[in-house]
Amino acid sequence: MPERLARNIALLVPLTLLAGAYLSQYGFAFYPCEMCWWQRYPHFVALALALLAFAVPMQRGCIALAALAIAVSGAIGGFHAGVEYGWWQGLTACTAVPSGNAGDDPLKAILEAPLVRCDVAPWTLAGVSLAGWNFLFSLAAALAIAILLKRRESTAP
Questions:
Q1: Which of 11, 87, 119, 144 could connect to 50 by a Cys-Cys bridge, CB 3.0–4.6 Å?
Q2: pLDDT, tens digit, for every residue of 76-107?
Q3: Which domains does the chain have, with CATH numbers?
């Protein structure tokens, strides 16, 4: 039972966080900066591993690797939040994301692209940025998965 719950958390957390990221991007025009994208990549990996855990006999390994990927995304989110709060400097200069259709003038698309900075939080809730929320939810989920997997391991004969 704990393993099934761990697998479900490993599936639902990255799915929910990615859905929220895309909703904020396409629904509310919060274009992602470079570090925002860095946070998404481990969630894609975690999602794939969690789905794989439903199909393979070695599902504990897939769930554990998914938890690790979720934790990596959380760590990146924590670093990004620190950059947003001015606690430290980021590793890279953020770039603008080109917008427009493929048939548009490329120069016009570049000039009209929104400037997305990594050191400015586009939105906060209770003083916590989106990167900060990713940090909190991802690390909590990774810890919960690890505890659930350990619980099963310690109760096995």
A1: 11
A2: 999 989 888 888 887 765 644 455 555 667 77
A3: 2-155 (1.20.1550)
